[in-house]
Write a structure and sequence with these properties.
The chain is mostly helical and about 450 residues long. It is built from 20 helices and no strands. It is a multi-pass membrane protein.
């Protein structure tokens, strides 16, 4: 372990993860404050309507958007390391153009679908208009180019600030709406403005950082001209987009399928367990966000990025084990305090799912390593197989064993995804000498 921390790249991953963790902790606490004010300041029906509106816009955004931050890191980090400003400018311009195009499609799709889904979502005439208004926030949700720029330029501190500023504004607006008795309209307007400003702040930070490195005119959209100078860019963005869409559908469908097969009460319990699981997996997500840019600065033909992956995996696994033990010891009390005694049954589901926390956290480096090796299509294939198997297993076990069966399916699904991804990762490592390392100065 002492040798691990002597590795500059490993220390950088941990440092950047701490930046992101600080922003996430503040965000979580402020988000809880905002939800508390909203829940107390509105009737349960109005509060639910506001949550549904936000969830709808986020679902549309998640399904349509491209993972442009991964593209910027994949192609921009080596260019920045080698000082190839023209290549980095092309990468940012292409990514920006892709964000604009996907945002237009997402807004149009969200607004066109809403009239057909409004009844199922429980929206009346007033809330329907507000939902249409919220669709205009989709560009700030669907755009991930600024995140990629800040990660490429190693400004994780600015990402942490942005992650704290948006929930801070939402919390302030919620406090004003609650104590000012502004009701539903006050919460809607304050949350909308906070999301709009928070999304714009990312772009402002990215623009300032590009100016700092004297990279001008990068934030000019260019889909086709820039793509001609970046071999393989379309293959990469479409593959990562499909993989993310599969992930979004898998996570969105789980609770819905439980509700269909078992009933709404079981779906509520499963949702609480899933929320708990997602929260405990946050450290791995933060490690991944700092791990990916770091290995893209390294030569995949050497053992260094792969060794870094092993060290990060073992570190995350140890962290996951500690978290699992804490959840096992205190999870029941936390659920009873936050959600009430009537939801305590969810703790039994969490106990079943605990093993998946350790396994999924240990497996976080694999996606980044496969992308580094240019194996994004292999990763997409693994995602399709894992997601399809999980959905089938979820339906079968839910039907046979109820909500406990759904928890078992989730454990098996998470574990199998990590195991299936391990095989192509090991194969890519064994064949690393044949990988092509494109130096930006050579391909520009």
């Amino acid at each position: 372990m002492k040798n691990w921390f002597s590795d500059g790249a490993f220390r950088t991953i941990l440092r950047n993860s701490v930046y992101l963790l600080s922003g996430n902790v503040v965000s979580a606490l402020l988000g809880l404050l905002a939800l508390s004010c909203a829940g107390k300041g509105m009737t349960p029906q109005l509060f639910g309507t506001l949550v549904v509106i936000q969830s709808y816009t986020k679902a549309i955004s998640d399904f349509v958007k491209f993972q442009t931050w991964q593209f910027v890191v994949q192609y921009g980090a080596p260019a920045h390391t080698d000082g190839n400003h023209q290549r980095l400018r092309d990468v940012v311009s292409f990514s920006f153009g892709l964000d604009i195009a996907s945002s237009v499609v997402a807004i149009a799709g969200g607004m066109l679908l809403l009239p057909f889904l409004s009844h199922s979502l429980g929206l009346d005439a007033t809330s329907f208009k507000l939902a249409l208004l919220y669709c205009t926030l989709i560009p700030s949700m669907a755009s991930s180019t600024p995140t990629g720029i800040l990660r490429t330029l190693d400004r994780f501190d600015l990402i942490a600030i942005q992650q704290a500023v948006k929930p801070l504004l939402i919390a302030i607006g919620s406090l004003i709406s609650y104590f000012g008795n502004l009701g539903f309209a006050g919460f809607v307007v304050s949350w909308y403005l906070a999301n709009l400003f928070g999304g714009s702040l990312f772009w402002w930070f990215a623009r300032q950082e590009l100016k700092r490195i004297n990279l001008h005119n990068a934030l000019r959209p260019s889909l086709f001209k820039a793509s001609k100078r970046i071999p393989g860019c379309w293959n990469f963005v479409w593959t990562t987009n499909f993989a993310h869409s599969i992930w979004a559908a898998q996570n969105s469908c789980s609770t819905l399928l439980v509700g269909i097969f078992i009933g709404p009460s079981a779906a509520g319990l499963f949702k609480i367990a899933m929320t708990f699981f997602d929260a405990t997996g946050t450290p791995a997500k933060l490690l991944e966000k700092s791990f990916y840019p770091e290995i893209m600065r390294l030569d995949p033909r050497t053992s260094k990025p792969w060794l870094l992956g092993i060290r990060s995996s073992l570190f995350a696994g140890g962290l996951g084990l500690i978290i699992a033990l804490i959840v096992y010891a205190a999870g029941g009390s936390v659920i009873a305090f936050v959600f009430g005694q009537k939801y305590l049954e969810a703790y039994g589901l969490i106990q079943i799912m605990l093993g998946a926390i350790v396994i999924s956290m240990m497996g976080f480096p694999q996606e980044s390593l496969l992308l580094m090796a240019g194996k994004q299509r292999v990763y997409l294939g693994v995602q399709i197989i894992a997601a399809g198997s999980y959905i089938l297993l979820l339906m079968l076990l839910s039907h046979l064993y109820g909500v406990e069966g759904a928890a078992v399916a989730y454990l098996i699904g998470q574990s199998s995804e990590v195991i299936l991804t391990l095989f192509p990762t090991l194969l890519a490592y064994r064949r690393r000498s044949s990988l092509i390392y494109h130096k930006p100065l050579e391909t520009a």
